Amino acid sequence: MRTRIILWTILLAGCTPTSNKPGLFDHLADKKTVVIYLNRYKVEGVPADIGALTNANSLFIGKDSVAGWTLYPPLSAMNQRNHVPPFRKLPDEITRLVNLRNLALVDLDLTELPENFGNLQNMDTLNLMLNKLTISKELEKLKQLKNLKYLMLVGNQVDSTDVYELKKVNPTLVLDIGPWSEP
């Protein structure tokens, strides 16, 4: 009987899942400047593992590292792009990266920012270029970023009321809304 108990204990211990599996970005956890191209990690959206980058003060996340010339579509095509899947969200874990000063989330098909995005109080530069954000729905989150000096919104749905509201809270904020944005 004693042998059976020992064998069952060994068997059960061997079947217990371990939580020592390394996170996707653990190898970048001590870096101050981090550049992530999602295609290199074979993921389509930003995974929750992003929360491991708590030492980062500059973070760039893009779909891929393909560089070169790009032919930009007319305004009508950009507006249509915002209504065509895929639609993605950032994981809440990104709001743990309170040391971030520069954050670029480029062409990730984001439709909304995490609820606690205002936790990123040290941020002075935010690039949200070519996502699918409706800025009027994200205004309250963006207004909480009191140290923000530069905000790039090219390729998102922005109107003059959004610009007015952001400038009212932060008069020195430099906004880049690009040629596709409404006046």
Mean pLDDT: 83
Integer-rounded radius of gyration: 21 Å
The parts where pLDDT drops under 50 for at least 5 residues are 67-71
Give the total of beta strands. Answer: 8
- What spatial order of strands do you see in the largest sheet? 1-2-4-6-7-8
| CATH architect. name | Alpha-Beta Horseshoe
User: What gross morphology would you assign?
Assistant: globular
Total helix count? 4
How many domains would you count in the coordinates? 1
The portion of residues assigned to helices is: 10-25%
Reading off the top of the CATH hierarchy, the class is best stated as: Alpha Beta
Largest sheet: 6 strands, parallel
CATH fold node name: Leucine-rich repeat, LRR (right-handed beta-alpha superhelix)
Distance from first to last alpha carbon: 81 Å
Instruction: Briefly note the structural class of the backbone.
Output: alpha/beta
Please give a handful of descriptors for the protein shown.
183 residues, alpha/beta, Leucine-rich repeat, LRR (right-handed beta-alpha superhelix), 6-stranded parallel β-sheet, two-stranded parallel ribbon, 8 strands
Structure notes:
This protein is of the alpha/beta class and 183 residues long. The strands form two sheets. It has a six-stranded parallel sheet, with no helix packed on it. The chain has a two-stranded parallel ribbon with strand order 3-5. The protein is built from four helices and eight strands. It starts with a helix and ends in a 7-residue tail after the last strand.
